[in-house]
Amino acid sequence: MKLALFDCDGTLVDSAGLIHETMRRTFEKFGKAEPRFGDTKAIIGLSLDIAIARMQGRPHVEQEDIDMTAHYKSLFTIVRQDLDHREPLFAGIREMIDAISGREDLLIGAVTGKSRRGLNLVMETHGFDKHFVVARTADDCPSKPHPAMVTECCDETGMNAADTIVIGDAVYDMQMAKAAGAKAIGVAWGYASVDELIANGADAIAYHPNEILRHFS
Question: Under a CB-based contact definition with an 8 Å cutoff, are residues 6 and 169 in contact?
Answer without folding.
Answer: no
